[in-house]
Every structure is written in structure tokens, then in C-alpha cells.
Amino acid sequence: MEKLHRLYALAWLLLVLCTLTAYTSSNNCGKIAFISDRDGKAQIYVMDADGSNVVNLTNDFFENWAPEWSPDGEKIAFQSDRDGNWEIYIMDVDGSNI
Asked: Distance (Å, rounded) from C-alpha 67 to C-alpha 56?
């Protein structure tokens, strides 16, 4: 049973690491883009790799999901229901120019 618990813990850790890796950009100085519903709806945030400097980029009334860095680290693509349908949007890394 203990081996099974360790296996589950390892699988969970790998899932978390893979998720964080998918949302990081080597071109953006170790910033991590992520979602959180801490403000009531799923919003896009960025933070430094050490967890500091958390900034809400979308801060709106819509559900925003799945942030992905552009290859050059200058933009973030994400899904949102802001027009009534789930669409893909692109914004600057500071949350402007959606």
C-alpha cells in the first residue's frame, strides 16, 4: 500500500511539473503564466518562478483559461468565453492589447 501511495504522489508531482513547464517561457526570464479563480472567475496571472510578483493580467468578468507563451515570449495566447463562445485570444505579456 505504501508503494502505491508513493506512486500516486510521484504521478501527481510529474503532472504538476509538466503543467508548469507547459506554461513557462524560456524567453521571458522565468515567468510562469497560470490560471486562478481567487477573484471569483478563472483569470490569467503571471508570476516570477520563485512565486513572487503575482499579477492578474485578465482581471475581467469572463472565464479565461489555458495560457500559453508565444515562442518569442512576447505574447500569451489563452482561451476565453468573452464573446459568448470559447475562442482563442492573444495578449501582450502585460495583459494589454487583447
From this structure: 12
Sequence-ordered strand ranges (E) for the chain: 31-36, 43-48, 55-56, 64-69, 75-80, 87-92
pTM over 0.85: no
Report the C-alpha gap between 64 and 42 in whole angstroms.
5
| DSSP state for residue 24 in the 8-state scheme | B
Residue range 34-87, pLDDT digits in tens: 999 998 899 999 999 999 999 999 999 999 999 999 999 999 999 999 988 999
* Cα atoms found within 13 Å of the Cα of residue 91, Cβ hemisphere only: 21
